[in-house]
Amino acid sequence: MLHETPGLLDAIRARFAHVESCPFQGPRIFFENAGGALTLKSVVDTSARFAAIPDNQGRDNMASHALVDIINRAKADLAVFMNASSGQFFVGESGTELLFRMIRTACVNAPKGAKVIGSSIEHPASRSAARRWAGIAGLDYVSVPHDDATGLVTAADYAARMSPDVAVATILHASPVTGMGMDVAAIARAIRSVSPDCFIIVDGIQHAAHGQLDIDGYGVDGYAISPYKVFSRHGYGVAWISDRLTALPHDQLIDAPAAGWEFGTRDTGAYATMSDVVDYFDWLGGQVSDATDRRARIEAAGRAIHSYETHLTNVMINGTGNLHGLRDMDHVTILAGAENPAREGLVSIVVRDMPSAEAVSRLNAQGIRTHTRKDDHYSGNVLRPLGMPDCIRVSLCHYNTEHEVTQFLAAMQDMKRKRCI
């Protein structure tokens, strides 16, 4: 485990900017990773370097050729990172925008009268796109309800509502509200067993920072991530699409190459920062394994991240030493249950008789950064069935420490005493 290797956690934290302090607030513990992870220092340096370069791709000069090489390297790095042996990668405005584009293309090319299937656990990025473009394309939208108690939707849930005329499907890989990860490969198999040619598009935005990406193992056609949630920066999204989704008629310039999905001149620096992210996972895998193959090192990093984040959330839920965990605090309710093996580095809670915004404010005053999720267009699909107007999202990443978790637990226990005054 990461914290069991002497010096490794310190080495990890040293690679990220603003680990222990906010440039505006000062010292703080960062438990808002689901809203945007910390940024690698190498990404900061790369962004600054490429922001100063005036040249564009596609010109006959040395700088332009170098930029094309950097983009090609980044795409190759992404293929190793996400284990994609076919298809293509491209960047866009954001992960949300890319989901809309992929889903729109699949819907408008579907046969009239076909169906689109998705689940009620999904973030509105995919759910809104699927419902909107199903309506425009004259398709029926089928909603698969998730289990409120576990925060999950399963392959069996999809299978119960599948039919051969489903042409487009959307899957959420991990929920930014419950923190639960879905079994994408199993869901995709359930879909294809009934509708083999269905176009399947996955929202991987919340899952990506926790490692363990495997496009070849999923059997899907589209996958989107938001780099600012996986140690890069804001301002762009990354999508992978299969060869058959690539080939569908899609928005593009007249007479442009048929396989092109990007619009205008892209930011080479955006691509280059993804190489920084992949290099980081490669480095981490080398610290936790003896693997010599790059993909094997990345897989080892993903396993180590998952194991350590599970350890941190277990400490948060169950406590440590004489310090009570959240499950033993009678003023705290844990969304999706205390015992949930699908959890990916995130615990959402409610404090009895206290608005979540107030609890988040109290934590922030103690230098602990969390976030409120409300019954709104982002999170109402999860909170409303539970009868909760809001919750506190505490999201961890592998650079967080057990000491930070214990400080949070002490603050939560102290909140009970202050609430009773």
The percent of residues in helical segments reads 40-55%
Average pLDDT works out at 95
Give the low-pLDDT segments.
none
Can you list the strand order of the major beta sheet? 4-10-9-8-7-5-6
- Summed up, the domain count is 2
Major β-sheet annotation: 7 strands, mixed
Structural class: alpha/beta
**CATH architecture name of the largest domain:** 3-Layer(aba) Sandwich
Number of helices: 14
CATH homologous superfamily heading of the largest domain = Type I PLP-dependent aspartate aminotransferase-like (Major domain)
User: So what's the overall shape?
Assistant: globular
Strand content: 15-25%
Overall radius of gyration = 22 Å
CATH class categorisation of the largest domain:
Alpha Beta
CATH fold field value of the largest domain: Aspartate Aminotransferase, domain 2
N-C termini distance: 41 Å
Number of strand segments: 17
Describe the 3D structure.
- The chain has 421 residues and is an alpha/beta fold.
- The chain folds into 2 domains: 2-39 and 294-420, Aspartate Aminotransferase, domain 1 (Alpha-Beta Complex); 45-279, 3-Layer(aba) Sandwich (Aspartate Aminotransferase, domain 2).
- It has helices spanning 8-14, 41-51, 62-81, 95-108, 124-136, 155-159, 184-194, 215-218, 243-247, 268-288, 294-318, 356-365, 380-383, 402-420, and strands spanning 21-22, 26-27, 29-30, 88-92, 115-119, 140-144, 166-172, 199-203, 222-225, 237-241, 319-320, 323-324, 332-334, 346-351, 368-369, 371-374, 390-395.
- Strands 4-10-9-8-7-5-6 form a 7-stranded mixed beta sheet, with helices on both faces.
- Helix 8 (215-218) links the parallel strand 8 (199-203) and strand 9 (222-225).
- Helix 3 crosses helix 10, helix 4 packs parallel to helix 5 (124-136) and helix 10 (268-288) crosses helix 11 (294-318).
- The protein is globular, with a radius of gyration of 22 Å.
- The two termini are 41 Å apart.
- 48% of the residues are buried.
- Keywords: Lyase, Pyridoxal phosphate.
- Pfam families: Aminotran_5.
- InterPro entries: Aminotrans_V_dom (IPR000192), PyrdxlP-dep_Trfase (IPR015424), PyrdxlP-dep_Trfase_major (IPR015421), PyrdxlP-dep_Trfase_small (IPR015422).
- It comes from Ruegeria intermedia.
- GO terms for molecular function: lyase activity.
